[in-house]
What does this fold into?
Amino acid sequence: MTRDDAEQRVWTQWSDAAQHNMGCEMQVEPALTEEYEWGWLVFLRAVRPEECRLEYPYRRYAIGGREGWSVPVGTKGLNEALLYLRVVTDADLRNRTQAEIEAMWNRLTTRRI
It folds into this structure.
């Protein structure tokens, strides 16, 4: 997968949700795309930030380079997004049910105090 492929895949998968949540027109911002060993961090940015209903006029998405899976980077940060990508792409998990994967995910992401 190339950088352009990654940006297009994120746009195809997440643009409708991003535009709905932000309340404004969004676009891929290629100048902000970051390349990593694991894949890319792609930014969708508001075309007209003043029209957005949220304070920050962009959304970030992590996309794995080999598999092409993508996930929003939310308030828990990039590490949580990468953990999710690892869980959904791990070869040992391919034969597990959705419920088993969700249970594993919940155990991995539950904070211990």
Observations:
- The longest strand covers residues 39-46.
- The beta strands are 26-28, 34-35, 39-46, 58-64, 70-73.
- Residues 3-109 form one domain.
- Residues 3-22 form the longest helix (20 residues).
